[in-house]
Specification:
Layout lengths: L2 H28 L8 E6 L5 H10 L6 H10 L9 E6 L4 H8 L6 E5 L6 H10 L4 H9 L27 E5 L4 H15 L2 H9 L4 H14 L3 H16 L8 H7 L35 H8 L8 E7 L2 E7 L2 H10 L3
Antiparallel strand pairs: 1-2, 3-4, 5-6
Helix pairs in contact: 1-3, 2-3, 5-6, 6-7, 9-10, 9-12, 10-12
């Protein structure tokens, strides 16, 4: 190989490397997106400079490198246009889309918090109160149709409603967000929260995701702390295993639309599949939308000596009273006036 030809090859390789580097840089700036599925919030406070914003974006995995973000805002003459606010950004947003959102002072979001244990009806009411399509949201929840096919945890034939799978959290919605997009956002979050390890552990127990979420929805309404949820879950699963009725008041409250911790009289005789005082096993659907603690409790219950529990209010705070025998349970009911 003569020197002239060798020099020619080196030149070609050098140009190829330069062009490849430019192509890669351009791709990272204009087409790359986050490293996660779903959405996250980004808080930009007053006084945050371009460097701080770039660092926050990188640490939250919205962008692959700070330099790509900085190059874009500089090239677009937007260095001083970033607006302090709390934004909800999607993992599939590119840098131009992120910049458009955080530099547009007209882009306002509604902050909506759905507490753990909220029902779809309560979520609908909260959306409506914030001028979002609450009734359309509820209609989709009760008749999801083709939407179910997007999520493998919703494909079993027995799942007719999205109640239980609308993950309760704080969300940021644009004022013109459609009901379908709102439902999708909540389902996407559920899909993230129910980890692959959780799904595998559910299968090992020979249970379905549907059964787990129904149980989680009950313990979410029955007790409050993560520890109590695990203990209550253990008691309920023990009852199911022995063919005993759950005798939970939470499903009755769901169907009666009340907030009573205890029911009596004709309520206990209600002819409904949600009346676990009359029927053996789980109710047909979840009765609330459980959070992470309740979901974990349904999958990983605590085994205990207890067979019964009461939820009572002492000094304005709810407390769970456990008992091993029915006699102790009756005594506790008398003691606390139930």
């Amino acid at each position: 190989m003569n020197k002239k030809y060798k020099k020619y090859l080196i030149t070609i390789l050098f140009i190829a490397l330069i062009l490849g580097g430019l192509f890669y840089f351009r791709y990272q700036v204009y087409y790359s997106h986050g490293k996660f599925v779903g959405t996250k919030t980004l808080e930009i406070t007053k006084g945050d400079g371009n460097k701080e914003v770039a660092k926050k974006l990188k640490e939250a995995d919205f962008i692959s490198g700070e330099i790509y973000f900085y190059y874009y805002i500089k090239s677009q003459k937007l260095l001083s246009k970033i607006m302090p606010d709390t934004y909800e950004l999607s993992g599939n947003m590119t840098i131009p889309e992120i910049v458009q959102t955080i530099t547009n002072s007209e882009e306002k979001f509604l902050k909506i918090t759905f507490p753990e244990g909220f029902t779809a009806r309560q979520m609908s009411e909260k959306l409506t109160a914030n001028n979002l399509p609450g009734q359309e949201f509820l209609a989709i929840v009760n008749n999801p149709g083709e939407l179910k096919k997007r999520y493998n945890y919703l494909t079993p034939d027995g799942i007719k409603t999205l109640e239980g799978y609308l993950f309760p959290d704080t969300y940021f919605f644009k004022k013109d967000t459609s009901a379908k997009d709102i439902v999708g956002r909540l389902l996407d979050t559920f899909d993230q929260k129910l980890t692959e390890q959780m799904r595998q552990d559910i299968l090992k127990q020979d249970k379905s995701i549907s059964e787990i979420i129904i149980m989680a929805s009950i313990v979410e309404k029955e007790v409050q702390t993560a520890e109590d949820m695990k203990t209550a879950s253990g008691i309920f699963w023990k009852r199911i295993a022995s063919g005993q009725r759950l005798e939970s008041d939470a499903p009755l409250s769901y169907i009666l639309q009340d907030t009573d911790d205890q029911h009596s009289g004709k309520d206990l005789e209600l002819d409904s599949p949600y009346n676990t005082y009359r029927n053996v096993g789980l109710p047909p659907t979840p009765i609330s939308n459980p959070g992470t603690n309740a979901m974990a409790a349904a999958i990983y219950p605590t085994t205990s000596k207890y067979n019964f529990f009461l939820t009572v209010t002492i000094d304005g705070k709810k407390k769970v009273i456990y008992s091993a025998t029915f006699e102790e349970h009756v005594a506790n009911r008398h003691k606390y006036g139930i």
